[in-house]
Structures are given as structure tokens and as C-alpha cells.
Fold this protein.
Amino acid sequence: MNAEEIQAIFFAECEESLVAAEQGLAACKAGTQDADTVNAVFRGVHSIKGGAGAFGYIALQGFTHTFETLLSDVRDGTVAITEPLVDLMLRGLDTLSDHVNAARGTGEEPDDASLQAEMTAAMAANAGAQPAPAPAAEVIAAAPAVEEVASSDDSDGFDFDFDAMLDDITGAIGSPAESAESDPDEDKGWQFKVRPHAGAMRNGSEPLLMLRELMELGGTCTDCDVDSIPPLDTLDPGVGYLGWTFTFPADVTEAAAREIFDFVGEECGLAVGESTPLPPVQLPAPRATAAASVAAPAAPAEPVPAPSVAAPVAAPRAEAIPQAPAPTAAAPTSAAQQAAPPAPPAPGQSIRIELGKLDKLIDAVGELVIAQAMMAQRLAGDGLAATEELALLEGLTRDIQESAMAIRAQPIGSVFSRVPRILRELTSTTGKHVRLEVSGESTELDKTVIERLGEPLTHLIRNAVDHGIESAEERIASGKSAEGTLTLSAEHRSGRILIRIGDDGRGINRERVLAKAIEKGLVAPDAQLSKDEIDLLIFAPGFSTAQAISNISGRGVGMDVVRQNVKDLGGRITIESEPGSGTTFTLTLPLTLAISDGMVVNVGDQTLVVPLANVVESLRPEPEEVQGLGASRAMINVRGRFIPVVPLHEAVGALNPVEKPEEGVLIVVETEGAGRAALLVDAICDQRQVVIKSLDTHYRSVEGVAGATILGDGRVALIVDVDSLVSRTLAGQSLAEAA
Amino acid sequence: MSIPTRILTVDDSPSMRALLNHALTTQGFDVSQAEDGIAALDWLALNEVDVVITDINMPRLDGFGLIEKLREGSRHRDRPILVLTTESSDEKKARARAAGATGWIVKPFDPAKLVAAVRRVAH
């Protein structure tokens, strides 16, 4: 794994952290301000900070540091959660998101100076009110209580040669004193004295390793102080009686030697210089009477925390991880409960899988589905359709397929969670008040679909706030509440997902839309359009009704792009609008891009698949409904509206097709570029889910073909790219006529 | 180093785990990873380890909670446990020490310092 891969993991993690923090803050805003919620926000920011430092993103690290400090104070209860504070934190999150983008190289670095100042001010304003506890003092206070227990397991009756052991210890550390004595300080060497106290041996520390490190650093052990060793019957194995003196050459810095004792800092007496005495032995206070004769003057000398053999882990833990009490109503009696970490709901365990591997699995499952269908067809041909094992296999195949799809599925919440930010930006620019209602965040759909959903969704939300929801004055004037409501929902329905973006605004002004469309030449001035048809005009390219072009939407691009995006995903978009009471856009999307609904049709000797997303209706025309136009063109009259007929066989070069529209079947399709068209086919065979195989990967991209699929009988069928095929055919016809 | 020192790193952040893993494995350590305190306890129930390196702030069971649990039993009472902390203040260090940590590694860590810290405590 190289640095870039780790960096990629970091950015993926940033996204997750931002989402988690956003959700936490949203919960805070909604009134859930408990320790877990604040901690979740803290953890999100904290985790970004850790990585930012590691990868050297200075600006990101700096900002997260300030933000984290503020969150830490909030978590500790020093800063109370108020509405302005939550708003400040939300703005902080927005800036953080910009910082992450800047670090990734996909955005400008935001100017966060004023925001950081605001955060610092928020901390300072509250700091005086409730000073932070001084935890170190509590640790010291807690320690002596434990010592008694620790030092009470003295035992009498040692039966080994203590002196011999001592020799071993002193001898083991470095070469004997002579070498140093023969070369006394002449090269300006210096002395370093160490006396580990009892505490230096707790928490798995091992002073011997540090002595070894001193030697590796270049030190020579010149003396071992054994003077403080008490008579055997009073010896406490938990106390550090020994002290060592090391001599270092001048080129070794004092800091380097001291650094070795970083972890045990106060639990090791350290001294530098020949004249400085070796730090005295520290004896545990409760046993002082027994040991008084040995080292009476030593005990009060250093005001360091009394050593304790068994770490008083339980006591300091309560303050070590402060659980922020709910600032509004935390009764003192609940302190004990707060100390025990409340078990947060366990998040689902997860592993990360490379997307490529997953796609390969999905691909194989697709093949399995096809193989299963082929076998079923073969068995049916042999009169064995009722084979019990076949039904079993079919069930299993379906299960595997669904499970595999579920792996790629993600909750739509990851897209929805970006909405609050968009909304905040919108409300601050437009001055409108908008409340957001979200439901169905846990609805799952394919990752690819989710990734490509962000843009159309953003635009629809902008559109709703900019054009749909009225200003507060206008709302009050029409008898509504000053605050508009934007609803966002997602749900599964019969193998597809419905996403609704609704507002309770003024609704579509159909008169104005129609007038605008006529003005822009999008429809004929005398056209008779139904309500729905007028609504759909807003998706026409280049259409914009905003009287004053705002900096949000109304630039005349957008809604047509939204429709195209949704179409690209194999989905549709519909509008329901009621003047005065609001507009709802409904996106109907497939759960996955790997499988799509298609209409299987025959054209001459070929079998093709028309994506169901494009199909409006299919019909068998009467001869009088078909009007010839020039030599090769035909139009069909569908309820008074003329639609060009596109003979599919010409486009694909099929042999022996049905050539007269009245003898075949016409499939009316909706296209992006060329409006409606009627595809002429011989017959419709089936309507089914097809596994889409890309032509690009196996052959090359072909205009008019969206991909291929394998049918149940093993034959390959091309999936028609209706948009490009119809546009191309109609354009070709015009050219042919012009020629 | 005939038998590599076995290290368990505990961190909920995948990128931090990746960084630790990279820094330690390239120095010849045998690295295992857990994503939080609970996962670490589960792993330790079945495996042996020489040094534990743990983040503090984690979901489910945090670093201090993990240390407390480990120090409760005799099996890990003297196990070197390093905590990853983003602050180098003395107060934080005192907290880590009081909670039962052997030492600490200040994030963002320098790989050489990380390795030195591990060597300092590895028995």
C-alpha cells in the first residue's frame, strides 16, 4: 500500500466523518444534545484532524484543531449548547468540508480566519463561567489510597542471595566503572543520573529497557547506587531503591537522554551534572514509619505524585473521558451514570472492498442468472419444466442476485445528508425561511446511482427554494406560515426507487410557463397543451422563467440537465404541481444500473431490447392513422398528434422485417433530443429484466446501441440507445430529403 | 530480530490504521489491526501480542476503556500499551499514564518516532 492509496482512504474517511458530523449536528439542532451525539460530531472532526496532520494538510489541520477544541469544550460541558453555537458549528462543518476539498485538490482553500476567531470567542465567552477541572490533581489525590494495598503484599522470608542478584543487576548495565574512570570527563562528557521510582514499573513500563536505551545512545554506566537498599525484612519489591549514574560523551544532548524517560517522566528521578546528587529514593508514604531509618530525609524532597504500584485506573477514568453532561438538565445524581460510558448502538461491522472486485462478482452473478435461464429454457424444451431442482436453483439464483446487488447498495442518506448544507446556503442568499423534512434516508440503492444522484437532486432543491417557495411576506400574505417546508423522501416501490422533492410554495405558474415557451419558440402560439404538458415544458432546453436571474438557479440551464441526468440513470422525472400549494418532483430510478427493465422485440431476423424507461406506449396502427411523408418518411397520428415513425430495421440492417407500420407494432418512445417517435418493430416478445453488458469493454462503442444482453435462450440481443438512434435516424432522413 | 515483535493497533480511522500498518510493517513488525476497543478485546481473546497501540476516541469502547479492561486481568497487566494522542500537553500525558498507558505517540506521528516508541516499551 503506497502513500496515495492511504491518502485515498483518508479522503473516503473524511466524507464519512463529515456525514457523521453533519448528522450529529442536525440531531443537536433538532434537540438531541446528549453526550453520544456531541461525541459523534467530535469524533468526526477529530478523525479528520488526525489524518490531516499525518498527510501534512496544514490549513485543514489548523482549522480542525480549533474546531475540535471547541467541540471538546462542548463535550466537556464547559461551553453550553445554544442555538447560535449549533449554527456556528454547522458553519464550521461547511468550511471544514471546503477545507477537505481544497486538500484533495478539488476546491479553493476557504478563508476561515473570521470563523476560527468566532470559535475561539465562543470558547472564551464560556470559559470563565465554568472552569475546566484540573484532572491531574485528582490523580494525585487518588493515588495514595491504592498504595496501601499495593505495598501491603510485602512478604518476609526471602531465601535467595540478594547481594549476588544486585551484582548481577549492576554488572549487567554496561561495562564496569573503570573505563569511565580512566577517562574522567576530559572530553567534556557529562553525567546523567537516573533513579526509577516505584511508578516507573507500572503500566507495563520496564526501566531496564530505558537503561539499555541510554547505553545505545552512547552512555556508560559508571555507578550504581545501592546505598538505599533496606534490610531484607523491610524491603518492598515495588519500590525503586537503585540509582544509576551514566556518563555521556559531549556530543549526546541532554534532551536525547531525557526523551528516553518521556513516558515515565515524573516516575523517574533524573539529574544532570556531576555535582547534582542522584535523586533520592521515594518511599510510599503509608509505610514511611517502617522505612524511616533507611531514607528519612528523602521522602519530602520531591513533590511528585506518590507512586502507586497498582494503577488507580478506575478512579481517574471517570475524569479522563469526560462524558459531556446534557447541559440543560443534568442532575448531579446522574454523574455516576455519566462516568460509565453508555454503550452506543453498535454500528454494523463493515469491511472495505475494492469496487472492481465487487463489480466482478456482480458480473458473474449476471452470468449465473443467464445460465440459469438458459437451462430452464432447455429443460422446458425437453418437457422437464416441472423439475423440482430447477425451482430450487431458480430460488437460489434469485437470492444470490439480490444479495450481490445489496452489497453495492448504500443508503440514500449519504446524499440526503448534503441537503442541509445546500439549504443553509440557499436560505442565507435568498433570505427565505425553509424547514427541511427528510424521510426514508435508509432506503438503499446502487452506489453508482447514488453517486450520480447528487447533481440533479441539488438542482431540484435549488429550484424549489428559488422558484417554488415564496418569500416570508408573500407566504404570510397568502395565508401560509412564514417558514416554507421542503420535503425529501425516498422509498422502494416495485423494484424501483421513488425520490420525491416537494415544496409547499406557489406551484408552477402555468400561464407564465406557456407564455415563456411560446416566446422562446418552444411551442406553437396556438398549441393546446394539457396541464401536465405545460409542466413538462420547464424541462425543455434553454427554458427559464425567473424574472430576475438569481445567482442560484434561473440561468436557463439546469432543469433540462436534471432530466438528462435522471434519464442517464435509466429513470424518469414527473411533476405534480398545484398552484398556491406547491410542487413535487418525483424521480423514479432503477435500483441498479447493471440490470434494467427492457422490452424484447423482434425486427426481421434480429432480437433487440428497448429500455422500458423510454417507452411511452405501444400500439398497432390502423392503415388510415399512418400518413406518408415524402418518399421514405411516415408519420403516425396518435390521438391527434403526429409522431414520426422510425423503422428500427433500417437502423440495424435486419433481414426480412415488417416494413409497413400497419403490419407491425409501433412503440412510442420519449427521447431527449427529438421528442417522441414511434419505433416500428415486427412484434413484442417479452418484457423482462435484462443484465446489461457494456459493448465498450468487449468490442467498442457503437452509436445507437446502449449495450448488449444475453437472453434466456443464450442469444445475444442489442439494447437500443433510443435517444441517439432516433436523433440520428430523423436527422439522416432530413439530409436525405435535402439532397 | 528473529521473531518479530507482534503489535496490535486499534484505531477506528481506516487511514490511521493504514498509516500505522505501513510504518510498522516496513520496520519488520508483525502488525494486526482492530477498529475499536471491542474488536481489540475480541482479537486479544484469541491471539497473543507484544505491544498494543490504541487510539483514544473510538466508538463502542474507547482507548481508556480498552486499557482498563486489559489491566484488569493478569494476562495484560504488564503489557506495554501505547496510546495515540493528538495532544502533547502534560495534562494529556498524565491522563494517559493515569489511565494505565505505558506511553504515548503524538499524532501526527513521525514513523521513526513511532518505531522508537515501540522499541522503548517492547520487552
Notes: Chain A is about 45% helix and 20% strand. Residues 3-30 of chain A form the longest helix (28 residues). Chain A touches chain B through 50 residues (CB under 8 Å). The first strand of chain A starts at residue 190 and ends at 196.
